[in-house]
Design goal:
The structure is a single chain. The protein is mainly β. 12% of the residues lie in helices and 36% in strands. It folds into two domains: 12-315, Thrombin, subunit H; 318-413, Roll (Pdz3 Domain), CATH 2.30.42. The chain is built from six helices and 25 strands. The strands form five sheets. Strands 12-13-14-17-16-15 form a six-stranded antiparallel barrel. Helix 1 (44-50) packs antiparallel against helix 2 (86-94). The longest helix has 14 residues, at 299-312.
Length: 414
């Protein structure tokens, strides 16, 4: 039995088709000595003087023996070394680890972004990028690197539960894997930078701050045949949505940035860009742009999922074995704020029942994180791997109880 999600008709629309996020920091960088203004191309070695980095652009290309070699890759340009910032440094450092992805299937196509997991060409991106919003699971995939090379790639595996996927470059070559940061150590207000290909513009850099942590959003399932477009905030109809627990940022995110990197001021990955909120539904055939409310999958989750897919072609997810709904302490539950996840049914022999959960319990904390809705609990459980040991705090008969649970395996229930 899986945990259901609850819709919110008043919530903003969540749009995650090929989107990307970023943010800026106020950290100062040492000025580079110079006697005159001079336009310079920033290289990886010069970036070390400035600090961590992320950015870059691509140029034209010509095809040879299975992959294309770009003729005019564009560097990170510095026109005035006296005014170089930490964002410039972050761009230069992280740029080689971020790629642009082109996906095509029977005349339809799209583009997104990704990050290198390994030197051998494994790349992490979003499921909705490689499935063209759930339209196919057999698309043709190409990857363009920051030095302008273009490679064919194959799909290794997808994880629709967290909207992550891994692809692999076919040709033998060596690449620069992304550096990982600990997303559990993030603070609200921390400076961040996002890198990706918004509107098809490769290696674009934006900056901002972490707006919120442990935010739960609901988007439509982008699995082929699983519910259609993932662009819309789930409205309670059709297939059940995907619950994602994410980092919120005010960095600009636009079509083409999905799967790209959200990095800290040292150029280390803190998240995979996945979605944005839009103020209102876009018109037919149109895509809305950034309003400063973007989301990224935390790096700790992205790293685990990526490694599992590389190893076995799929990712594991935990199962609590409890049917839950939103709980409100208000007399008018329809208009009051949800304050927990109400257990309405338990799977016999499931992880929840074994841990001592009872129908009528209200879950208010899960592994130290506050739970205010059924969707938050679902997302928190799915973030864990099968067999994980967790602590659950519930309210029963007006008293708080702490339970210890060993989570089950979602795959075993399907």
């Amino acid at each position: 039995m899986t945990d259901p999600n609850v819709s919110n008709s008043n919530a903003p629309e969540i749009n995650r088709q090929f989107f990307f996020k970023s943010e800026t920091s106020g950290a100062a960088l040492p000025a580079q000595p110079t006697k005159k203004r001079e336009r310079k191309a920033l290289t990886a070695s010069s970036a070390l003087v400035i600090g961590a980095i992320v950015g870059g652009l691509f140029g034209g290309s010509a095809g040879v023996a299975g992959y294309l070699i770009a003729t005019h890759p564009a560097p990170v340009v510095v026109n005035n070394t006296d005014s170089v910032t930490w964002v410039t440094g972050v761009a230069a450092k992280s740029l080689p680890s971020v790629v642009t992805i082109s996906v095509d299937s029977k005349g339809s196509g799209g583009s997104g972004s990704g990050v290198f997991l390994t030197k051998t060409g494994y790349i992490l991106t979003n499921t909705h990028v490689v499935t063209l919003e759930g339209a196919t699971n057999t698309a043709t995939i190409q990857v363009r690197t920051t030095d302008g090379r273009i490679f064919d790639a194959t799909l290794v595996g997808t994880d629709p539960t967290n909207d992550l996927a891994v692809i692999k470059i076919s040709a033998a070559s060596e690449f620069t894997p992304i550096e990982w940061a600990d997303s559990s150590a993030l603070n609200v207000g921390a400076p961040v930078v996002a890198i990706g290909a918004p509107l098809g513009l490769p290696s674009s850099v934006t900056s901002g701050v972490v707006s919120a942590l442990d935010r739960t959003i609901q988007v439509a399932d982008s699995t082929p045949g699983g519910g259609g477009s993932s662009l819309q905030w789930w409205n309670g109809t059709g297939a059940a949505p995907v619950n994602l627990r994410v980092i919120q940022t005010d960095a600009a995110i636009n079509p083409g940035n999905s799967g790209g990197a959200l990095v800290n001021d040292n150029g280390a990955l803190i998240g995979i860009n996945v979605a944005i909120a839009t103020a209102s539904s876009s018109s037919a055939g149109a895509q809305s742009g950034s309003i400063g409310v973007g989301f990224a999958i935390p790096s700790n989750v992205a790293k685990r999922i990526g490694e599992e897919i590389m190893k076995s072609g799929k990712a594991s997810h935990a199962l609590l074995g409890a049917l839950v709904t939103d709980y409100s302490a208000s007399k008018n539950a329809a208009s009051g704020f949800s304050t927990g996840a109400l257990v309405s049914k338990l799977t016999p022999g499931g992880a929840g029942e074994k841990a001592g959960l009872k129908v009528g319990d209200v879950v208010i904390r899960f592994n130290g994180e506050a739970i205010t809705s059924s969707g938050e609990l679902t997302a928190a459980v799915r973030f864990e791997k099968a067999g994980a040991k967790v602590e659950i705090v519930v309210v029963r008969d007006g008293k708080e109880l702490t339970l210890q649970a060993t989570l089950g395996d979602l795959a075993g229930s399907q």
